[in-house]
Amino acid sequence: xxxxxxxxxLHLLSKNESLSEITMQEALRPEYGQEGQFKExxxxxxFQSMLAVGLIEIKEVSIxxxxxxxxxxxxxxxxTGRLSxxxxxxxxx
Length: 93
Prior knowledge:
- This is DNA-binding protein.
- The protein is an alpha+beta fold and 93 residues long.
- It has one domain: Orthogonal Bundle (Arc Repressor Mutant, subunit A).
- The chain has helices spanning 5-14, 21-32, 40-52, 77-82, 88-91; strands spanning 19-20, 56-63, 69-75.
- The chain has a 3-stranded antiparallel beta sheet.
- β2 (56-63) and β3 (69-75) form a beta hairpin.
- α1 crosses α3 (40-52) and α2 packs across α3 (40-52).
C-alpha cells in the first residue's frame, strides 16, 4: 500500500536524523517517480506545509555547490505523534 506523499515524507523523516529537499526526492523516486506530483516544487510545498503546522523543523540551512539554498529538515515530537495515524503495516517500519 502506497502512502500519500506527505505522510511518506513524514515517515522517512522519522527514520532519518534529517533530510534535505534533494535527499528526500532521491529517497521517494522509486515509489513516486512516475507520478505527476513528483517534482521538486511539490516536495518543497509539502515541506513548507509540514513546517507551518509544526510537524517538522529546519535543522540546518546551507548553500550547495551550485549556489542553491538548501534546508535540512527533521521531524518534531508533534510530528512523531502524528505517525500513529499511519496504517498499522507502516507503523513498525
